[in-house]
Design brief:
The chain is an alpha/beta fold. The protein has helices spanning 13-19, 24-44, 57-62, 65-84, 86-90, 106-119, 135-148, 156-161, 206-218; strands at residues 5-9, 49-56, 93-98, 125-133, 171-174, 193-196. The protein has one domain (5-135, 169-218): Decaprenyl diphosphate synthase-like (Undecaprenyl pyrophosphate synthetase), CATH 3.40.1180. The protein contains nine helices and six strands; from the N terminus they run βααβαααβαβααββα. The radius of gyration is 17 Å and the shape is globular.
Amino acid sequence: MQPIHLGLIPDGNRRWARAHGLEPWQGHVRGAEVMEECLKWCLEEGIQEVSVYALSAENLIKRPEEELRKIFQILAEYLDKLSRDEFVHKHEVRIRVLGRTYKLPDYVLDAVHRAVKATKKHTNHFLNILVAYGGQDELLRCVQMASRSRVGRITKKLLEKFLWVSRPVDLIIRTGGDHRLSNFLPYQSAYAEIIFVDKYWPDFTREDFNRCLAEYRQRQRRMGA
């Protein structure tokens, strides 16, 4: 059994860079390369949806401006590359960039729009890139929008209507050695299996990915039962 929806928390880019005597942004470049490979692994394994925690809302506040500029440049280049990628179009991957995207620079938003437009007709697979995202922020937005609707009572079904990501997460893989979710899709991950990998994301390999999937298949999902 494969996960239908995979969540990725690719942590450790900066620490990997420091360990190799590099600038932090060089870790993000390597991290983007690994993410590109990982997306191909997901498609080869038939995983229908992937949600990537690319940049949290807290990162926008706490990261140095110079590092953020580099991250934005890498993100724009990555999106443009994905929008032209033959593998993406062959497997009909629809790209969605979700979060408080209005906080991004205009040139990044332009790249977002190009990637979304280039893949908007694809329906076989979905790649959700979470940028300027926070799970609590998403839930607050859902409650606010539900309360504005002309419905007397807020129900679970109504709340879920306003989620940025609608499908529940089956498996979360987090690299970097930390054992927490860090505000990643809390509603959608209520019954997700979680695997923590004690490697920095730039060192994550196909063998690591395969081991995570093998461990997932061995687990018995009780879904709260």
